[in-house]
Specification:
The strands form six sheets. Strands 2-7-4-5 form a four-stranded antiparallel beta sheet, with no helix packed on it. Helix 1 packs parallel to helix 3. It has four domains: about 110 residues, Sandwich (Jelly Rolls), CATH 2.60.120.260; about 70 residues, no CATH class; about 230 residues, no CATH class; about 55 residues. It is of the alpha+beta class.
């Protein structure tokens, strides 16, 4: 994301972004998208693109052009010829302010390296004045939007405004847009559940909402038209939907809700304690979690991979944060771990460890409660209102963290719950508030005058970390032993997953009877308890049957 400085202190023009091409890769153009899905505050209307070998001498632009505003889709800028220049300047020559304060903003600006790959373009290429052509286009769109077969009578309220525009001399495309808007603004589209021609259309609409956060495609509509969305066809349909790139929306939304990644940016780590934490790392940490979960689902891996595995999906910045060598470049890729690496699984991902901390320090109680509830699937009672929270102290004169919590647990109102909380938090004490490994706690040191960033930060190391604990009658000394204990009960992991997915898919928590039914679907054999199969069984139960 890039933004010019806005009022009251406007950035002086020219406004531009320079992209570096250090490997002299062949670049065929640029891909541009606005910020906030077409609603970015300052939008770019016109641009010029310049090339340079040294970043100083630019010459004449390789291309000038205009961009549409208020458009959520990517817009492509195709260069008249390929280039391998080391520097590309994207100069804003005209901008439109939507808020009266901002001059220009960019949500994403990337390079195009292979124009032989089909780019997303408009779906309508009809230069026609035919009423029948217009009706065909609008009917196809409306049947996808409503997930239902439509009669001429059903279509007429949306078709008539388009027909009036066409008869008034507007182009075919502009006339079609009027009909599209009428469909998208209609109560039938906006208010769920809608009216469907048969039960399969209703199921198609639900599946598209769950996996794509969108409407059914042609293949789903074909299944619905034949009234053939059944428990026999469901695995084939879900395979098709998961392989579609739009399934990443489901992964993102599930992570936002189940793993609470929507709170990821609420707290910024202290640069005094964690001076190497930066915006690039902040960008990629949740992406690791989403791509990892997507990989598990697409490859139908065992459910205990949620707890531990010998790999993750990393790039150079993430690997650097985790202390893993040999990963070069920002492309996300599968990276295998040696046995002594404490990564693998959701528990030790930086995004999870960050959302369970406050940006300064970690609390075994807060982190433990989160892990116990959201990953292990334990049911926790709310804390008593009369009991104050424990604020960890790691100073040289402070009691150990474990002693502080043991003192807190002497209150009988607290003891019962802490048995299901503290071990899950202590097991992860080897990871700081940014998810980095640590052997000792950091404590802030004072600095003179106004804070000035320095790479070494403002902290000192104090007490050693003690990540030991016990769950039930089983003891562990570190996170490796902790993961082994959790992986032994694959049914508990699976049950928590399908409960969370049921809630995501249906918008409500399963009742007692439904919880019994969901648990009964879990295979006894851990090797047969696979994530994609569990999702299919959950939807078969809640949508099909």
């Amino acid at each position: 994301f890039w933004h010019t400085r806005f009022k009251p202190t406007l950035a002086e023009p020219p406004h531009y972004v320079i992209l570096e091409n250090p490997n002299s890769s062949v670049i065929d153009g640029l891909s541009y998208a606005t910020w906030s899905g077409g609603n970015g505050n300052g939008q770019i209307q016109a641009y010029s693109v310049f090339l340079s070998d040294d970043g100083q001498n630019w010459g004449e632009p390789i291309i000038d052009g205009n961009l549409e505003i208020r458009l959520a889709n990517e817009q492509f800028i195709h260069f008249p010829r390929s280039t391998n220049k080391k520097y590309i300047k994207f100069l804003v020559t005209k901008a439109h302010s939507l808020d009266g304060r901002s001059l220009a903003s960019i949500g994403r600006l990337d390079v195009l390296t292979d124009l032989s790959i089909e780019q997303r373009t408009a779906k309508i290429f009809v230069d026609s004045k035919s009423e029948e052509d217009l009706k065909v286009v609008l009917q196809r769109f409306a049947e996808k939007a409503f997930a239902s077969r439509l009669t001429n009578e059903d279509l007429q309220p949306y078709f008539q405004p388009s027909l009036d525009m066409l008869n008034d001399g507007e182009s075919f495309v502009e006339a079609a847009k009027v009909g599209f808007k009428a469909v998208l603004c209609s109560p039938r589209f906006l208010m769920a559940p809608g009216e469907h021609a048969n039960l399969s259309y209703s199921k198609a609409a639900d599946l598209a909402r769950i996996f794509w956060l969108s409407v059914p495609d042609e293949k789903l509509v074909d299944f619905a038209r034949a009234n053939n969305i059944t428990n026999n066809s469901l695995p084939q349909i879900i395979d098709h939907m998961i392989e579609d790139p739009r399934s990443s929306r489901m992964i993102h939304s599930l992570c936002q809700q189940w793993l609470e990644l929507r709170t990821f940016d609420q707290v910024a780590p202290s640069l005094k304690l964690y001076p190497t934490y930066n915006t690039l790392l902040n960008h990629y940490l949740p992406i690791e979690t989403e791509t990892y979960l997507g990989y598990l689902i697409k490859n139908n891996l065992p459910v205990d991979y949620l707890i531990d595995s010998n790999f993750s999906i990393l790039n150079q910045r993430l690997a650097q944060h985790y202390g893993i060598d040999g990963v070069i470049g920002q492309e996300m890729r599968k990276v295998s771990f040696s046995p002594e690496v404490p990564r693998g699984g959701l528990l030790t991902m930086g995004s999870i460890l960050k959302v369970t901390a406050d940006g300064f320090d970690t609390s075994p109680i807060l982190r433990g409660a989160w892990i116990s509830k959201n990953i292990a699937g334990n049911t926790l009672s709310p804390p008593p209102e009369s009991v104050e929270a424990v604020e960890p102290e790691h100073g040289e004169d402070a009691a150990s963290l474990r002693e502080q919590i043991e003192e807190h647990k002497k209150n009988q109102a607290c003891y019962a719950c802490h048995k299901s909380i503290d071990p899950y938090g202590f097991a992860l004490e080897s990871f700081d508030a940014t998810g980095q490994w640590r052997d000792q706690y950091r404590v802030k040191t004072p600095h003179k005058n106004t804070f000035t960033y320095r790479r070494n930060g403002y902290f000192k190391l104090t007490a050693d970390v003690d990540p030991s604990g016990s769950i039930g009658k089983e003891d562990f000394t570190d996170v490796f032993g902790f993961k082994k204990i959790l992986r032994k009960d694959h049914k508990k992991i699976a049950y928590n997953l399908i409960k969370k997915f049921f809630e995501y898919a249906n918008g409500y928590q399963p009742d007692l009877r439904q919880r019994f039914d969901l648990y009964s679907m879990i295979p006894h054999d851990p090797k047969k308890c696979r994530i994609r199969d569990l999702l299919i069984h959950t939807l078969d139960y809640s949508l099909i049957k």
